[in-house]
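Worked example (supplementary).
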Amino acid sequence: MTMAILSVRALKRARTRHPIAVFVIRRLLALVALALGISLVSFVLTHLVPGNPAVANLGQQASNDPAAVHAFEARYGLDKPLPEQYVIYVGHLLHGDLGVSEQTQRPVLTDMVSYAPPTAELALTAMFIAVVVGVGLGLSAALRHNGWLDRTVRIFTLVGVSIPIFWFALLALYIFYLRFGILPGVGRLAPTVQPPPTVTGFATIDSLLAGQWSTFVDAVSHLILPAVVLAAPVTSLITRFARAAVLEVLGNDYVNAARAKGLPTHTVLLRHVLRAALSSIITVAGLALANVLTGTVLVERIFSWPGIGQYAYNSAINLDLPSIMGATLFVAIVYTLTNLVVDVLYTVIDPRVRLA
Amino acid sequence: MTAIKPSSVALRRPRIPQRWREPLLITGAVVVGLWIIAAVLSPWITPDNPLAQNATPLSAPSVHHLFGTDENGRDVLSRVISGAPVSLSLGILLVVLELVIGGTLGAIAGYFGGWLDEIIMRITDLVFAFPTILLAMVVVAALGPGLFHSVIAVAAVGWPTQARVVRSLVRTTMQSDYVTVSRLLGSSSFRALRVDVVRNVLGPVAVLATLGVGNAILLLSGLSFLGLGARPPMAEWGSMVASGSVNFQDWWLATFPGLAILTVVMGFNFLGDGLRDALDPRSFIDEALPGSRTVEP
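After joint prediction of all chains, the assembly is encoded as:
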């Protein structure tokens, strides 16, 4: 009891001295709880359901042999009671062990390390496009509130979130690759191009680091189509939020004051309007990452992009328990951590946000 | 001869109030209405049997087959039309499921508050921590591929959005002055919930449900595209696009079912966005869009 009171006091004292540090610690503690919950969800989903992993992985022939099935279940702890299986699972997780993939016969974490960079490269490029275009469109729509541009942008954003992304990807490939041959087809690099030595895992950055200019150009040209397709729905989301954020800021007295004292329009926009709207736009961008990650599963499948989406797909259709669980967990943790960073950024950018 | 007073003409209410005559709302309603009619009449209006393999495979659109034929010699137009009842009914069923689960949990959380609220909201946080399709893929992979299983999967990942919106609407209404007044006047809290809260929650939920149908159709067809949803030979738009990605040269295979998904989803999104303006000019769930997660007022 006293311990608890003491720690509360210590927390209060620390909060006044290092508000951001305490905020980060609190969020990290919440993150641990969330991580446990996430592991429980993925565990329950993959263990409490009737899909039989032994049959899926051994094939019909081998699963008729009781000895083979038993050996398989013993190897993955599938013969133990469920709570025990979960404790074993979490114990392994804490050691960074996400299990061994049935498909690749490698630890899932090793797989993630090699499959994550292509996804990160694709997702970050798409996010960059979405934020730049979205903020631009949102700002111009808000400045002409209820004008024709505002209405057009609204229609575009509604169409943008209605496009089936897998269809859009096919269409883009058909037009730009098959019909006009402007851009290359699937994959990260042309088959004839020697991949650059792996440093970051990003084909674009690695080829620059190796000084291979032609490889860089090839990597960028392969990145354009999937990134633009992936960016389409997210651009719509960010446009809507940016427009709303800018509209809210525009109503403030200090914007009128800045205008009234004769500041040039672009100064008012950059220094007063966008700066104030930025914090909420950043938050939305963090949340929109979930949309991008959802999109990558479909886009990577079409563009044969060797990323986590492709990996998750292969695991899912093969009922490969350890790898689908590991991949899902990995993505969920990355997403949650990203949003923690976003929240911290938010408080740094906007001191008005209370840290409590 | 009595002169008509000009004011009486001007004050007469138009049959349809102005706020319901937004082009966006009307376009959405017309598109959705046409698709629903097509879905209901689909057994009678398909030019061919959608499953019959009696034409030359992979023939381009022509007078006989307006949308061409697929790799099994089936008429693509017939398959697109008979895909409508599949996607529409499952999309609507899904939103009903999400509303039943999410709406109930959200209402409980908002009405009772306290630890119950805390637990339910933490569960929604949990589900939100996963990218939607990945979680749905895990569920489908666990239950085995199939359209019904993918409906369960999408409902399992979709309910928290509804739960959060309903929760905060219930909370806001319960804390409003008129609920306080009506309770002071002696009405029970159940009556407050039934009369005031339901009235305030219905509009936003209608908007959310409309946007939700579009989102559900997108996700379901995505799962079918991946081969985790509908099984062949069923005419389902997502798996039809998938067959178009195999026969990539034959553009008509993927284009038409894809356009069907696009127009249906667009119809629901236009309708939902228009409804929001018509029902509540204050824009309660201001920038809520399908797939967007920041929908808390």
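Two points are worth noting when inspecting this output. Residues 213-250 of chain A form the longest helix (38 residues). Chain A touches chain B through 60 residues (CB under 8 Å).
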